[in-house]
């Protein structure tokens, strides 16, 4: 687990949106330092109604972390109410969407993957679960205290990201909630980047 990189929400770099409607905290853009990402994970705060930028050739997934949520629509085919914390919603970055807040400010986890190089899946865990390293990924504690197989603890607003190199074995790890986390107060997001 030496290629795991810890992060916490409060220490992620903040980029304000040009339209003034929110901000993004980037967790990782892979490969690091490259002009184009294969995959990118971030946490966004949406503070006002407005457009979502289109990302042609990119598949996206958005998961509500806090707040009442947001309605996403393209004015025709797609109309989705994102209002359940921990429920991921995948969509094509080719779409030009508008976001309309259902209440106040929301915070969302975003995963983007370049369609020609990788894919993804996002899963919410409330109990002990086994994850596979895959090509890369992110763990983020939405609520509760959790433990990695090596005994490392992390809690609400904290997480880890990793990327495996070509040919590296795809290990599996069991992630467990700590005993002091009440069953109704546990929620962990696992975002896996796959081939």
Automatic annotation (TrEMBL):
CDD domains: cupin_HutD_N. SUPFAM superfamilies: RmlC-like cupins (SSF51182). Coiled coil: none annotated. InterPro entries: RmlC-like_jellyroll, RmlC_Cupin_sf, Uncharacterised_HutD/Ves. Pfam families: HutD (PF05962). This is HutD family protein. It comes from Kluyvera intermedia (Enterobacter intermedius).
């Amino acid at each position: 687990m030496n290629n795991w990189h810890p992060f916490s929400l409060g220490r992620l770099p903040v980029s304000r949106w040009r339209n003034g409607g929110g901000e993004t905290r980037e967790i990782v853009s892979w490969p690091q330092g490259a002009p184009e990402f294969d995959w990118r994970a971030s946490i966004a705060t949406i503070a006002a109604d407005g457009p979502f930028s289109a990302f042609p050739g990119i598949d996206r997934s958005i998961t509500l972390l806090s707040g009442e949520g947001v309605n996403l629509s393209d004015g025709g085919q797609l109309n989705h109410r994102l209002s359940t914390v921990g429920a991921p919603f995948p969509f094509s970055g080719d779409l030009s969407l508008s976001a309309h807040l259902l209440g106040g400010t929301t915070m969302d986890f975003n995963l983007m993957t370049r369609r020609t190089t990788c894919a993804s899946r996002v899963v919410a865990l409330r109990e002990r679960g086994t994850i596979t390293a895959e090509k890369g990924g992110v763990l983020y504690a939405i609520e509760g205290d959790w433990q990695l197989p090596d005994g490392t603890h992390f809690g609400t607003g904290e997480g880890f990201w990793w990327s495996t190199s070509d040919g590296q074995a795809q290990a599996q790890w069991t992630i467990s909630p700590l005993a002091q986390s009440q069953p109704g107060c546990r929620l962990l997001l696992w975002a896996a980047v796959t081939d």
